[in-house]
């Protein structure tokens, strides 16, 4: 008989990845980049969370403070992942490759979250400290039946190109071997190279990091399509949604690719 924690994790993963794939809306940019990163009409957390929940995202990944401010909006309507590590861009340059605790697994569980997320900068001088924190987070989440999403980001002084396939697949493999239930990582530029990243994860669901807003929405849709065709399970996206001219249309277009497998050209037909 499966232990209760295993059952709890499977139930929560099914909420985050309905049908095995997911469009997760990321909203931790106020900590990471400051409020200027967010269009002024959408800086109010309640407004943007209401917009994306209404648009039909599968899950939201955000900070403890935003989750607290908006619980009555997302509760019972979409899955919630609380990010329990973070940093600001105000830090001195030498400390930019370290994420600090900003929440806890216990706090996330108390708010009825479906999962927790934490970043590991693979190759960072602070890799050891982040791994120690990640392991503690993962084990506590495991005991409570919660999945742990690792933001597996290779960054460090010896890494010349963080998007190179051999670097990204190394990060995905390291995330799998350190117990990640879900992996968020960089897009490597093509379907063929991202397939190597998916293979490196050995069955752990891999989701693409949305990154900076692309010059045209169709460009981002092509990335999503290639990720899905390569075996990826979806995307964790922030700026390409909350900076979009029409948020609802962009969410719908991404969902068509993630859940229906339609082509970018077909998905772009819903954009106005």
Provide key terms for this protein.
TIM Barrel, eight-stranded parallel β-barrel, 272 residues, alpha/beta, globular, 10 strands, 44% helix, two-stranded antiparallel ribbon
Under the CATH scheme, the architecture is Alpha-Beta Barrel
Number of helices: 12
Number of domains: 1
Overall mean pLDDT:
95
Estimate the global geometry from the Cα principal axes: globular
Quickly give the structural class: alpha/beta
> How would you sum up the major sheet?
8 strands, parallel, barrel
- Percentage beta strand: 15-25%
Superfamily at the CATH H level? Answer: Aldolase class I
The largest sheet has its strands arranged as 1-2-3-6-7-8-9-10
| CATH fold type | TIM Barrel
H and E string: HEHHEHEEEHEHEHEHEHEHHH
Low-confidence runs: none
Count all strands and give the number.
Answer: 10
